[in-house]
């Protein structure tokens, strides 16, 4: 049976931290679905279509990776695809509480679905989409934090100096 995992998030926008985890996960899964949440709690900067397009552009075309938007509960999307593993990145202790709670809530909703936490590379650990947005907004250099397509999209959103 091929191992299929779902890597879920808001990806608003995708960062080099996300792409690092995607590449790492492909070492142990046969296929990865990057699941882009449409109904993120916070107001997103980019539309779902923009986020999906930026993820696709940030990844070297790899037949093992599929980018899909989903609406509603993550567990329902995972079960509809017959996926049994959800991957989430853990950057720091501060991520843990929220991630642990979400993993247990997802297990409550779908006991057969496992959450797997992965550690990103040290040089991407400090990167978050929210900080990338903030730095870009005020004209800071984000070129080493995101794919050029994302840097250019942020520049367009905020203007060259924010
Ligand atoms: O990148 P993020 O914002 O940390 O990702 C969080 C996300 C989108 C994976 C999570 O909020 C989610 O799964 N949203 C869909 C609704 C849901 O299933 N929530 C989890 C049960 S509490």
Task: Offer a few descriptive terms.
single chain; 162 residues; alpha/beta; Rossmann fold; five-stranded parallel beta sheet; 40% helix; 18% strand; globular; binds 4'-phosphopantetheine
* Strand order in the sheet with the most strands: 3-2-1-4-5
The top-level CATH class is Alpha Beta
Order of helices and strands: EHEHEHEHEHH
The named CATH superfamily: HUPs
Number of strands: 5
CATH architecture type: 3-Layer(aba) Sandwich
Describe the SSE topology.
Blueprint: E1 4-9, H1 16-25, E2 31-37, H2 48-58, E3 65-70, H3 74-80, E4 85-89, H4 93-109, E5 114-118, H5 129-137, H6 148-158
Parallel strand pairs: 1-2, 1-4, 2-3, 4-5
Write structural notes for this entry.
40% of the residues lie in helices and 18% in strands. The chain contains six helices and five strands. The longest helix is centred in the middle third of the chain and has 17 residues. The structure holds 4'-phosphopantetheine. 4'-phosphopantetheine binds next to strand 1 and helix 4.
């Amino acid at each position: 049976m091929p191992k299929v995992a779902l890597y879920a998030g808001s990806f608003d926008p995708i960062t080099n931290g996300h792409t690092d985890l995607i590449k790492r996960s492909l070492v142990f899964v046969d296929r990865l679905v990057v699941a882009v949440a449409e109904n993120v709690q916070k107001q997103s900067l980019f539309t779902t279509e923009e986020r999906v397009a930026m993820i696709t552009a940030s990844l070297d075309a790899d037949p093992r990776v599929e980018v899909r938007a989903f609406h509603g509960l993550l567990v329902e999307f995972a079960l509809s695809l017959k996926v049994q593993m959800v991957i989430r990145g853990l950057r720091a202790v501060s991520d843990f509480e929220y991630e642990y709670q979400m993993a247990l809530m997802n297990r409550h909703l779908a006991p057969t679905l496992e959450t797997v936490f992965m550690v990103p590379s040290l040089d991407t650990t400090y990167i978050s989409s929210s900080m990338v947005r903030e730095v870009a907004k005020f004209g800071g250099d984000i070129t080493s934090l995101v794919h050029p397509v994302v840097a250019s999209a942020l520049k367009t959103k905020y203007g060259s100096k924010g």
